[in-house]
Queue: 2 jobs
Job 1
Amino acid sequence: MPNDTVSMPNDTISVCYSGNKRVFPGLLLSVLSLAKFTARPLHVFVLTMDLHEVDPAFVPFSEEQIRILDGVLKEKNGQSSACRVDVSEPFRRELADGKNTKNFYTPYTLLRLYLDGLEGLPDKIIYLDIDTMCASDIGQLYDVDLGDAEYGAVLDYMGKFWINRHYCNAGVLLLNLKRIRQTKLFSRARDYVCTHKLVMPDQTALHRLCTRRIYLPRRFNEQRGLHKDTVVKHFCRGIRWLPFFHIYNYKQWERDKVHKKLKIFYFDDLYEKYDELAARYDLTK
Protein backbone atom coordinates (compact mmCIF):
# COMPACT_ATOMS: atom_id res chain seq x y z
CA MET A 1 0.00 0.00 0.00
CA PRO A 2 1.50 3.31 -0.97
CA ASN A 3 1.70 6.01 1.65
CA ASP A 4 3.64 9.24 1.40
CA THR A 5 6.81 9.06 3.47
CA VAL A 6 6.47 11.28 6.50
CA SER A 7 9.50 13.17 7.78
CA MET A 8 9.46 13.05 11.58
CA PRO A 9 11.80 14.37 14.28
CA ASN A 10 13.86 11.69 16.02
CA ASP A 11 11.89 11.94 19.26
CA THR A 12 8.49 11.63 17.58
CA ILE A 13 5.97 9.19 19.05
CA SER A 14 3.97 7.41 16.35
CA VAL A 15 0.41 6.37 17.17
CA CYS A 16 -2.19 4.61 15.05
CA TYR A 17 -5.99 4.43 15.28
CA SER A 18 -8.54 2.81 12.98
CA GLY A 19 -12.23 3.48 12.52
CA ASN A 20 -14.95 5.23 10.55
CA LYS A 21 -16.50 8.66 10.40
CA ARG A 22 -19.23 7.86 12.95
CA VAL A 23 -16.77 7.45 15.84
CA PHE A 24 -14.97 10.76 15.30
CA PRO A 25 -16.09 12.12 18.71
CA GLY A 26 -14.20 9.29 20.40
CA LEU A 27 -11.16 9.74 18.17
CA LEU A 28 -11.05 13.47 18.84
CA LEU A 29 -11.29 12.97 22.60
CA SER A 30 -8.54 10.36 22.52
CA VAL A 31 -6.23 12.60 20.48
CA LEU A 32 -6.96 15.51 22.82
CA SER A 33 -5.77 13.33 25.71
CA LEU A 34 -2.65 12.31 23.77
CA ALA A 35 -1.73 15.93 23.15
CA LYS A 36 -2.47 17.08 26.70
CA PHE A 37 -0.02 14.77 28.43
CA THR A 38 2.73 14.41 25.80
CA ALA A 39 5.31 17.12 25.18
CA ARG A 40 7.17 15.23 22.42
CA PRO A 41 6.04 15.45 18.79
CA LEU A 42 3.20 13.08 17.94
CA HIS A 43 2.42 11.65 14.54
CA VAL A 44 -1.03 10.10 14.38
CA PHE A 45 -1.92 7.71 11.58
CA VAL A 46 -5.66 7.16 11.15
CA LEU A 47 -6.57 4.02 9.21
CA THR A 48 -10.00 4.08 7.60
CA MET A 49 -11.99 2.67 4.69
CA ASP A 50 -15.24 2.86 2.75
CA LEU A 51 -17.42 -0.21 3.29
CA HIS A 52 -20.86 1.37 2.97
CA GLU A 53 -22.26 -1.64 1.12
CA VAL A 54 -21.94 -3.66 4.34
CA ASP A 55 -23.33 -0.90 6.59
CA PRO A 56 -24.38 2.62 5.51
CA ALA A 57 -22.44 3.97 8.51
CA PHE A 58 -19.17 2.40 7.31
CA VAL A 59 -17.77 5.48 5.57
CA PRO A 60 -14.23 6.80 6.04
CA PHE A 61 -13.10 9.70 8.17
CA SER A 62 -13.25 12.90 6.17
CA GLU A 63 -10.27 15.08 5.32
CA GLU A 64 -11.86 17.85 7.39
CA GLN A 65 -11.93 15.60 10.44
CA ILE A 66 -8.25 14.83 9.99
CA ARG A 67 -7.50 18.55 9.66
CA ILE A 68 -9.21 19.10 13.02
CA LEU A 69 -7.01 16.42 14.60
CA ASP A 70 -3.93 17.92 12.99
CA GLY A 71 -4.80 21.32 14.41
CA VAL A 72 -5.29 19.89 17.90
CA LEU A 73 -1.87 18.24 17.76
CA LYS A 74 -0.08 21.28 16.35
CA GLU A 75 -1.62 23.53 19.00
CA LYS A 76 0.43 21.57 21.55
CA ASN A 77 3.53 20.95 19.42
CA GLY A 78 4.10 22.45 15.99
CA GLN A 79 6.05 19.36 14.89
CA SER A 80 3.09 17.04 15.53
CA SER A 81 0.74 15.95 12.75
CA ALA A 82 -2.11 13.66 11.75
CA CYS A 83 -2.74 11.90 8.46
CA ARG A 84 -5.41 9.63 7.03
CA VAL A 85 -4.58 6.28 5.42
CA ASP A 86 -7.30 4.71 3.27
CA VAL A 87 -7.12 0.91 3.44
CA SER A 88 -10.29 0.25 1.43
CA GLU A 89 -8.62 -1.41 -1.54
CA PRO A 90 -6.52 -4.07 0.25
CA PHE A 91 -9.36 -4.84 2.67
CA ARG A 92 -11.82 -5.36 -0.17
CA ARG A 93 -9.30 -7.57 -1.94
CA GLU A 94 -8.35 -9.76 1.03
CA LEU A 95 -10.89 -9.63 3.84
CA ALA A 96 -14.22 -8.25 2.60
CA ASP A 97 -15.50 -11.75 1.84
CA GLY A 98 -13.86 -13.35 4.86
CA LYS A 99 -15.58 -14.96 7.81
CA ASN A 100 -15.39 -11.95 10.13
CA THR A 101 -16.62 -8.99 8.09
CA LYS A 102 -19.91 -9.21 9.98
CA ASN A 103 -19.07 -9.53 13.63
CA PHE A 104 -19.90 -8.02 17.02
CA TYR A 105 -16.85 -5.83 16.40
CA THR A 106 -16.70 -3.68 13.27
CA PRO A 107 -14.33 -4.71 10.45
CA TYR A 108 -12.33 -1.56 11.19
CA THR A 109 -10.62 -3.39 14.05
CA LEU A 110 -8.95 -5.55 11.38
CA LEU A 111 -7.26 -2.61 9.66
CA ARG A 112 -4.36 -2.60 12.13
CA LEU A 113 -3.29 -5.88 10.52
CA TYR A 114 -2.27 -3.85 7.45
CA LEU A 115 0.34 -1.75 9.23
CA ASP A 116 3.11 -4.07 8.03
CA GLY A 117 2.46 -2.98 4.43
CA LEU A 118 2.40 0.78 4.90
CA GLU A 119 5.40 2.76 3.70
CA GLY A 120 6.85 5.59 5.71
CA LEU A 121 6.11 4.12 9.13
CA PRO A 122 8.80 3.84 11.82
CA ASP A 123 9.85 0.46 13.17
CA LYS A 124 7.88 1.09 16.36
CA ILE A 125 4.31 2.37 16.64
CA ILE A 126 1.56 2.38 19.25
CA TYR A 127 -1.87 1.14 18.24
CA LEU A 128 -4.81 2.49 20.27
CA ASP A 129 -8.47 1.61 20.05
CA ILE A 130 -10.62 4.70 19.68
CA ASP A 131 -12.29 4.01 23.05
CA THR A 132 -9.07 4.83 24.90
CA MET A 133 -7.96 7.96 26.75
CA CYS A 134 -4.47 8.85 27.92
CA ALA A 135 -4.25 9.64 31.62
CA SER A 136 -0.53 10.52 31.50
CA ASP A 137 2.37 10.70 29.04
CA ILE A 138 2.09 8.04 26.31
CA GLY A 139 5.88 8.27 25.95
CA GLN A 140 6.11 5.93 28.95
CA LEU A 141 4.66 3.20 26.74
CA TYR A 142 6.52 4.16 23.57
CA ASP A 143 9.90 3.97 25.30
CA VAL A 144 9.46 0.35 26.42
CA ASP A 145 12.20 -1.81 24.85
CA LEU A 146 10.58 -4.60 22.85
CA GLY A 147 13.83 -6.35 21.94
CA ASP A 148 12.97 -9.02 19.36
CA ALA A 149 9.33 -9.34 20.49
CA GLU A 150 6.67 -8.66 17.88
CA TYR A 151 4.55 -6.59 20.20
CA GLY A 152 3.83 -5.64 23.79
CA ALA A 153 0.33 -5.93 25.27
CA VAL A 154 -1.54 -6.08 28.56
CA LEU A 155 -3.44 -9.17 29.66
CA ASP A 156 -7.15 -9.07 28.91
CA TYR A 157 -8.99 -8.49 32.18
CA MET A 158 -11.65 -11.13 31.51
CA GLY A 159 -9.94 -13.23 28.86
CA LYS A 160 -7.06 -14.18 31.15
CA PHE A 161 -9.59 -16.06 33.29
CA TRP A 162 -12.04 -17.37 30.70
CA ILE A 163 -9.91 -17.93 27.60
CA ASN A 164 -6.22 -18.33 28.42
CA ARG A 165 -4.02 -16.97 31.18
CA HIS A 166 -1.74 -15.47 28.51
CA TYR A 167 -4.60 -13.91 26.50
CA CYS A 168 -3.95 -10.21 25.83
CA ASN A 169 -6.20 -7.29 25.03
CA ALA A 170 -5.39 -5.81 21.62
CA GLY A 171 -6.89 -2.37 22.31
CA VAL A 172 -3.44 -1.06 23.23
CA LEU A 173 -0.45 -2.50 21.39
CA LEU A 174 3.19 -1.46 21.22
CA LEU A 175 4.20 -2.82 17.82
CA ASN A 176 7.64 -3.81 16.57
CA LEU A 177 6.86 -3.47 12.86
CA LYS A 178 10.35 -4.45 11.79
CA ARG A 179 10.03 -7.78 13.58
CA ILE A 180 6.42 -8.24 12.45
CA ARG A 181 7.50 -7.91 8.83
CA GLN A 182 10.22 -10.50 9.38
CA THR A 183 7.88 -13.05 10.97
CA LYS A 184 4.96 -12.09 8.69
CA LEU A 185 2.72 -12.05 11.77
CA PHE A 186 0.19 -9.62 10.33
CA SER A 187 -0.05 -11.29 6.92
CA ARG A 188 -0.56 -14.65 8.63
CA ALA A 189 -3.15 -13.07 10.92
CA ARG A 190 -5.04 -11.66 7.92
CA ASP A 191 -5.18 -15.14 6.39
CA TYR A 192 -6.34 -16.55 9.72
CA VAL A 193 -9.22 -14.12 10.27
CA CYS A 194 -10.28 -14.59 6.67
CA THR A 195 -10.71 -18.35 7.09
CA HIS A 196 -11.68 -18.77 10.78
CA LYS A 197 -14.90 -17.50 12.35
CA LEU A 198 -13.92 -15.86 15.66
CA VAL A 199 -15.63 -13.88 18.39
CA MET A 200 -12.68 -11.49 18.76
CA PRO A 201 -11.00 -11.97 15.36
CA ASP A 202 -7.64 -10.22 15.17
CA GLN A 203 -7.10 -10.27 18.92
CA THR A 204 -7.42 -14.05 18.91
CA ALA A 205 -5.36 -14.42 15.74
CA LEU A 206 -2.51 -12.45 17.27
CA HIS A 207 -2.69 -14.57 20.44
CA ARG A 208 -2.49 -17.82 18.49
CA LEU A 209 0.09 -16.82 15.89
CA CYS A 210 2.54 -14.61 17.80
CA THR A 211 6.04 -16.00 18.21
CA ARG A 212 7.07 -13.68 21.06
CA ARG A 213 5.29 -10.93 22.96
CA ILE A 214 6.06 -8.79 25.99
CA TYR A 215 3.46 -8.60 28.74
CA LEU A 216 3.05 -4.97 29.73
CA PRO A 217 1.91 -3.67 33.13
CA ARG A 218 -1.79 -3.10 33.56
CA ARG A 219 -1.32 0.67 33.76
CA PHE A 220 -0.74 0.76 29.99
CA ASN A 221 -4.22 -0.64 29.28
CA GLU A 222 -6.41 -0.13 32.32
CA GLN A 223 -9.65 -1.94 31.53
CA ARG A 224 -11.45 -1.16 34.81
CA GLY A 225 -11.02 1.77 37.20
CA LEU A 226 -8.73 4.76 36.83
CA HIS A 227 -5.65 4.70 39.08
CA LYS A 228 -2.87 7.14 39.92
CA ASP A 229 -0.37 5.32 37.70
CA THR A 230 -2.72 4.73 34.75
CA VAL A 231 -1.21 5.69 31.39
CA VAL A 232 -4.08 4.55 29.13
CA LYS A 233 -7.68 4.12 30.27
CA HIS A 234 -9.58 1.72 28.02
CA PHE A 235 -13.35 2.21 27.99
CA CYS A 236 -14.07 -1.39 26.99
CA ARG A 237 -16.78 -3.83 28.02
CA GLY A 238 -16.80 -5.05 31.59
CA ILE A 239 -18.78 -7.10 34.07
CA ARG A 240 -20.35 -6.06 37.33
CA TRP A 241 -21.70 -8.59 39.80
CA LEU A 242 -23.55 -6.26 42.18
CA PRO A 243 -26.28 -5.35 42.76
CA PHE A 244 -26.92 -7.84 39.94
CA PHE A 245 -24.83 -9.44 37.20
CA HIS A 246 -24.64 -7.27 34.11
CA ILE A 247 -22.29 -6.36 31.26
CA TYR A 248 -21.55 -2.68 30.75
CA ASN A 249 -19.93 -0.86 27.84
CA TYR A 250 -19.62 2.87 28.47
CA LYS A 251 -17.48 4.86 26.04
CA GLN A 252 -15.62 8.08 26.81
CA TRP A 253 -17.87 10.09 24.49
CA GLU A 254 -20.91 9.02 26.57
CA ARG A 255 -20.15 11.77 29.06
CA ASP A 256 -23.13 11.33 31.39
CA LYS A 257 -22.45 7.59 31.75
CA VAL A 258 -18.76 8.18 32.39
CA HIS A 259 -19.77 10.51 35.21
CA LYS A 260 -22.75 8.67 36.66
CA LYS A 261 -21.89 5.02 36.02
CA LEU A 262 -18.10 4.98 36.11
CA LYS A 263 -17.64 7.94 38.48
CA ILE A 264 -14.78 9.24 36.35
CA PHE A 265 -14.31 13.03 36.22
CA TYR A 266 -10.61 13.05 35.37
CA PHE A 267 -11.20 14.02 31.72
CA ASP A 268 -13.62 16.90 32.32
CA ASP A 269 -11.17 19.54 31.07
CA LEU A 270 -10.92 17.58 27.80
CA TYR A 271 -14.70 17.53 27.51
CA GLU A 272 -14.60 21.32 27.81
CA LYS A 273 -11.97 21.48 25.05
CA TYR A 274 -14.11 19.16 22.91
CA ASP A 275 -17.11 21.48 23.39
CA GLU A 276 -14.99 24.43 22.27
CA LEU A 277 -14.05 22.57 19.09
CA ALA A 278 -17.66 21.50 18.54
CA ALA A 279 -18.70 25.15 18.71
CA ARG A 280 -15.98 26.08 16.21
CA TYR A 281 -16.59 23.24 13.74
CA ASP A 282 -19.64 21.30 12.70
CA LEU A 283 -18.56 17.89 13.99
CA THR A 284 -21.69 16.23 12.62
CA LYS A 285 -20.51 16.61 9.01
Note: The chain is about 30% helix and 20% strand.
Job 2
Amino acid sequence: MIKLYIISGMSGAGKSQALKIFENFGFVCVDNMPVQMFFDFVSICLKNQDKYKNVAISVDSRAGESLSHLGDMLVVLKSKKINYKIIFFNASDSVLLRRYSETRCRHPLGKTVSEGINLERKIVNDVFCTADEVVDTSNLTIGELRKTISVFAGVHQLEKQFLNISVVSFGYKYGLPSDADIVYDVRFLPNPNYVHGLKFKTGKDKAVKKYIEKQKEFKLFFGRFSELIEINLLGYIKEGKSYLTIAIGCTGGRHRSVFIVEKFAEFLKSKKYKVKLNHRDILRSR
Protein backbone atom coordinates (compact mmCIF):
# COMPACT_ATOMS: atom_id res chain seq x y z
CA MET A 1 0.00 0.00 0.00
CA ILE A 2 1.45 3.36 -1.09
CA LYS A 3 1.51 6.14 1.47
CA LEU A 4 1.52 9.53 -0.29
CA TYR A 5 1.92 12.99 1.24
CA ILE A 6 1.15 16.04 -0.88
CA ILE A 7 3.14 18.96 0.51
CA SER A 8 1.91 22.45 -0.23
CA GLY A 9 1.72 25.85 1.37
CA MET A 10 3.25 29.30 1.38
CA SER A 11 6.73 29.97 0.07
CA GLY A 12 9.00 30.49 3.07
CA ALA A 13 6.76 28.49 5.40
CA GLY A 14 9.01 25.41 5.47
CA LYS A 15 7.94 23.19 2.56
CA SER A 16 11.50 22.51 1.41
CA GLN A 17 12.64 21.75 4.94
CA ALA A 18 9.66 19.44 5.38
CA LEU A 19 10.64 17.49 2.24
CA LYS A 20 14.18 17.09 3.58
CA ILE A 21 12.78 15.69 6.81
CA PHE A 22 10.51 13.28 4.95
CA GLU A 23 13.54 12.19 2.92
CA ASN A 24 15.49 11.54 6.12
CA PHE A 25 12.58 9.36 7.22
CA GLY A 26 13.05 7.20 4.12
CA PHE A 27 10.45 8.75 1.81
CA VAL A 28 10.94 9.22 -1.93
CA CYS A 29 10.57 13.00 -2.35
CA VAL A 30 9.88 15.16 -5.41
CA ASP A 31 9.94 18.95 -5.15
CA ASN A 32 7.71 21.10 -7.40
CA MET A 33 6.05 18.19 -9.19
CA PRO A 34 4.57 19.45 -12.51
CA VAL A 35 0.86 18.67 -12.39
CA GLN A 36 1.02 17.37 -15.97
CA MET A 37 3.44 14.65 -14.83
CA PHE A 38 1.41 13.59 -11.82
CA PHE A 39 -0.56 10.78 -13.44
CA ASP A 40 2.57 9.22 -15.01
CA PHE A 41 4.32 9.42 -11.66
CA VAL A 42 1.44 7.65 -9.92
CA SER A 43 1.63 4.87 -12.52
CA ILE A 44 5.35 4.45 -11.85
CA CYS A 45 4.67 4.23 -8.11
CA LEU A 46 1.99 1.58 -8.58
CA LYS A 47 4.29 -0.55 -10.75
CA ASN A 48 7.06 -0.53 -8.13
CA GLN A 49 5.35 -0.30 -4.76
CA ASP A 50 8.34 -1.64 -2.84
CA LYS A 51 10.46 1.34 -3.90
CA TYR A 52 7.63 3.89 -3.77
CA LYS A 53 5.94 2.68 -0.63
CA ASN A 54 6.40 6.08 1.07
CA VAL A 55 6.26 9.16 -1.16
CA ALA A 56 6.12 12.91 -0.55
CA ILE A 57 5.65 15.43 -3.37
CA SER A 58 5.55 19.21 -3.32
CA VAL A 59 2.79 20.98 -5.28
CA ASP A 60 2.50 24.72 -4.79
CA SER A 61 2.05 28.14 -6.40
CA ARG A 62 4.94 27.53 -8.79
CA ALA A 63 2.57 25.25 -10.72
CA GLY A 64 0.52 28.31 -11.70
CA GLU A 65 -2.92 27.74 -13.23
CA SER A 66 -2.37 23.98 -13.40
CA LEU A 67 -2.74 23.91 -9.62
CA SER A 68 -6.48 24.20 -10.25
CA HIS A 69 -6.39 20.57 -11.44
CA LEU A 70 -5.55 19.33 -7.94
CA GLY A 71 -9.11 18.05 -7.59
CA ASP A 72 -8.62 15.83 -10.66
CA MET A 73 -5.42 14.47 -9.12
CA LEU A 74 -7.24 13.54 -5.93
CA VAL A 75 -10.01 11.76 -7.86
CA VAL A 76 -7.37 9.60 -9.56
CA LEU A 77 -5.75 8.79 -6.22
CA LYS A 78 -9.07 7.73 -4.74
CA SER A 79 -9.93 5.60 -7.77
CA LYS A 80 -6.61 3.79 -7.47
CA LYS A 81 -7.09 3.41 -3.70
CA ILE A 82 -3.90 5.30 -2.87
CA ASN A 83 -3.79 6.51 0.71
CA TYR A 84 -2.90 10.22 0.59
CA LYS A 85 -2.78 13.19 2.91
CA ILE A 86 -2.40 16.89 2.04
CA ILE A 87 -0.25 18.88 4.44
CA PHE A 88 -0.31 22.66 4.07
CA PHE A 89 2.58 24.65 5.58
CA ASN A 90 1.66 28.15 6.61
CA ALA A 91 3.10 31.11 8.51
CA SER A 92 1.98 34.62 9.31
CA ASP A 93 2.69 37.36 6.76
CA SER A 94 5.04 39.12 9.18
CA VAL A 95 7.09 35.95 9.68
CA LEU A 96 7.26 35.29 5.93
CA LEU A 97 8.40 38.88 5.32
CA ARG A 98 11.09 38.51 7.98
CA ARG A 99 12.35 35.22 6.55
CA TYR A 100 12.62 36.66 3.05
CA SER A 101 14.41 39.68 4.46
CA GLU A 102 16.90 37.50 6.33
CA THR A 103 17.65 35.21 3.39
CA ARG A 104 17.42 37.95 0.75
CA CYS A 105 15.69 35.49 -1.55
CA ARG A 106 13.43 36.54 -4.40
CA HIS A 107 9.77 35.57 -4.08
CA PRO A 108 8.95 32.80 -6.65
CA LEU A 109 6.05 34.81 -8.09
CA GLY A 110 8.44 37.55 -9.16
CA LYS A 111 6.69 40.37 -7.31
CA THR A 112 7.81 42.35 -4.30
CA VAL A 113 7.69 40.08 -1.27
CA SER A 114 4.48 41.65 0.07
CA GLU A 115 2.73 41.47 -3.29
CA GLY A 116 4.01 37.92 -3.81
CA ILE A 117 2.62 36.77 -0.47
CA ASN A 118 -0.81 38.29 -1.15
CA LEU A 119 -0.99 36.80 -4.65
CA GLU A 120 0.22 33.40 -3.45
CA ARG A 121 -2.44 33.19 -0.75
CA LYS A 122 -5.09 33.55 -3.46
CA ILE A 123 -3.46 30.92 -5.69
CA VAL A 124 -3.12 28.27 -2.96
CA ASN A 125 -6.40 28.99 -1.18
CA ASP A 126 -8.15 25.97 -2.71
CA VAL A 127 -5.30 23.72 -1.54
CA PHE A 128 -5.50 25.29 1.91
CA CYS A 129 -9.24 24.53 2.09
CA THR A 130 -8.64 20.94 0.93
CA ALA A 131 -5.74 20.21 3.30
CA ASP A 132 -5.98 17.39 5.82
CA GLU A 133 -3.43 19.07 8.07
CA VAL A 134 -2.28 22.70 8.38
CA VAL A 135 1.08 23.31 10.04
CA ASP A 136 1.80 26.87 11.15
CA THR A 137 5.59 27.17 11.32
CA SER A 138 5.65 30.78 12.56
CA ASN A 139 7.05 29.77 15.94
CA LEU A 140 8.36 26.27 15.25
CA THR A 141 12.01 25.28 15.58
CA ILE A 142 13.47 22.74 13.15
CA GLY A 143 13.37 20.15 15.93
CA GLU A 144 9.67 20.82 16.59
CA LEU A 145 8.93 20.65 12.86
CA ARG A 146 10.68 17.31 12.69
CA LYS A 147 8.61 15.95 15.58
CA THR A 148 5.41 17.15 13.92
CA ILE A 149 6.30 15.45 10.64
CA SER A 150 7.35 12.26 12.44
CA VAL A 151 3.79 12.00 13.77
CA PHE A 152 2.31 12.46 10.27
CA ALA A 153 4.77 9.95 8.80
CA GLY A 154 4.07 7.39 11.49
CA VAL A 155 7.70 7.25 12.52
CA HIS A 156 8.03 5.71 15.97
CA GLN A 157 11.76 4.96 16.05
CA LEU A 158 14.11 6.61 18.49
CA GLU A 159 15.04 10.14 17.44
CA LYS A 160 18.75 9.36 17.75
CA GLN A 161 18.43 6.88 14.89
CA PHE A 162 17.90 9.81 12.52
CA LEU A 163 21.17 11.49 13.45
CA ASN A 164 23.84 10.15 11.09
CA ILE A 165 27.23 10.48 12.79
CA SER A 166 30.53 10.27 10.95
CA VAL A 167 33.60 9.91 13.17
CA VAL A 168 36.88 10.72 11.44
CA SER A 169 40.48 10.29 12.54
CA PHE A 170 43.04 12.58 10.92
CA GLY A 171 46.57 13.92 11.15
CA TYR A 172 47.10 17.61 11.86
CA LYS A 173 50.16 17.56 9.63
CA TYR A 174 47.82 16.93 6.68
CA GLY A 175 45.25 19.60 7.56
CA LEU A 176 41.80 19.69 9.16
CA PRO A 177 38.86 17.80 7.60
CA SER A 178 36.86 20.40 5.70
CA ASP A 179 33.44 18.96 6.65
CA ALA A 180 33.99 18.57 10.40
CA ASP A 181 31.35 19.96 12.79
CA ILE A 182 33.33 19.11 15.94
CA VAL A 183 37.14 18.86 16.01
CA TYR A 184 39.03 17.43 18.97
CA ASP A 185 42.80 17.33 19.47
CA VAL A 186 44.27 14.27 21.22
CA ARG A 187 47.91 15.22 20.79
CA PHE A 188 48.13 15.65 24.58
CA LEU A 189 48.34 11.85 24.85
CA PRO A 190 51.82 10.26 24.73
CA ASN A 191 52.72 9.47 21.13
CA PRO A 192 53.20 5.75 20.30
CA ASN A 193 55.18 6.82 17.24
CA TYR A 194 58.25 7.24 19.47
CA VAL A 195 57.85 3.93 21.29
CA HIS A 196 60.02 1.05 20.11
CA GLY A 197 57.99 -1.46 18.11
CA LEU A 198 54.91 0.77 17.70
CA LYS A 199 55.99 3.26 15.04
CA PHE A 200 54.86 1.13 12.10
CA LYS A 201 51.64 -0.06 13.74
CA THR A 202 48.33 1.80 13.90
CA GLY A 203 45.64 2.53 16.47
CA LYS A 204 43.90 -0.67 15.39
CA ASP A 205 46.76 -2.85 16.61
CA LYS A 206 46.51 -4.47 20.01
CA ALA A 207 49.93 -3.25 21.19
CA VAL A 208 49.07 0.39 20.40
CA LYS A 209 45.68 0.10 22.10
CA LYS A 210 47.27 -1.35 25.21
CA TYR A 211 49.91 1.39 25.31
CA ILE A 212 47.35 4.23 25.08
CA GLU A 213 44.85 2.67 27.48
CA LYS A 214 47.41 2.43 30.28
CA GLN A 215 48.17 6.18 30.13
CA LYS A 216 46.64 8.07 33.03
CA GLU A 217 45.79 10.97 30.69
CA PHE A 218 43.60 8.66 28.63
CA LYS A 219 41.81 7.30 31.70
CA LEU A 220 40.93 10.85 32.82
CA PHE A 221 39.97 11.99 29.34
CA PHE A 222 37.79 9.40 27.63
CA GLY A 223 34.87 9.13 30.05
CA ARG A 224 34.45 12.89 30.33
CA PHE A 225 34.88 13.37 26.58
CA SER A 226 32.18 10.78 25.81
CA GLU A 227 29.75 12.31 28.29
CA LEU A 228 30.32 15.81 26.91
CA ILE A 229 29.79 14.77 23.29
CA GLU A 230 26.63 12.85 24.19
CA ILE A 231 25.21 16.04 25.71
CA ASN A 232 25.99 17.79 22.41
CA LEU A 233 24.29 15.00 20.45
CA LEU A 234 21.08 15.25 22.44
CA GLY A 235 21.03 18.99 21.71
CA TYR A 236 21.63 18.44 18.00
CA ILE A 237 18.77 15.92 17.88
CA LYS A 238 16.46 18.40 19.59
CA GLU A 239 17.37 21.03 16.99
CA GLY A 240 16.65 18.59 14.15
CA LYS A 241 20.20 18.05 12.87
CA SER A 242 20.47 15.02 10.58
CA TYR A 243 24.20 14.75 9.86
CA LEU A 244 27.17 15.34 12.15
CA THR A 245 30.88 14.85 11.57
CA ILE A 246 33.19 14.52 14.58
CA ALA A 247 36.89 14.71 13.72
CA ILE A 248 39.56 13.56 16.17
CA GLY A 249 43.14 14.39 15.33
CA CYS A 250 46.69 13.57 16.35
CA THR A 251 49.98 14.42 14.67
CA GLY A 252 50.01 11.86 11.86
CA GLY A 253 46.52 10.39 12.06
CA ARG A 254 47.73 6.80 12.50
CA HIS A 255 47.94 5.99 16.23
CA ARG A 256 46.15 8.04 18.89
CA SER A 257 43.33 9.47 16.79
CA VAL A 258 42.62 6.08 15.19
CA PHE A 259 42.39 4.36 18.56
CA ILE A 260 40.16 7.09 20.07
CA VAL A 261 37.86 7.06 17.05
CA GLU A 262 37.50 3.27 17.19
CA LYS A 263 36.73 3.33 20.90
CA PHE A 264 34.40 6.32 20.63
CA ALA A 265 32.46 4.66 17.79
CA GLU A 266 31.93 1.63 20.03
CA PHE A 267 30.58 3.93 22.73
CA LEU A 268 28.15 5.61 20.31
CA LYS A 269 26.93 2.28 18.95
CA SER A 270 26.29 1.08 22.49
CA LYS A 271 24.02 4.13 22.84
CA LYS A 272 22.12 3.11 19.66
CA TYR A 273 23.49 5.88 17.41
CA LYS A 274 24.12 5.33 13.69
CA VAL A 275 27.88 5.66 13.19
CA LYS A 276 30.21 5.62 10.19
CA LEU A 277 34.00 5.40 10.61
CA ASN A 278 36.65 7.03 8.45
CA HIS A 279 40.40 6.90 9.15
CA ARG A 280 41.44 9.58 6.70
CA ASP A 281 45.21 9.44 7.09
CA ILE A 282 45.89 5.93 8.38
CA LEU A 283 47.53 4.88 5.10
CA ARG A 284 49.69 7.98 4.69
CA SER A 285 53.44 7.49 4.34
CA ARG A 286 55.18 7.08 7.67
Note: The longest strand covers residues 83-90.
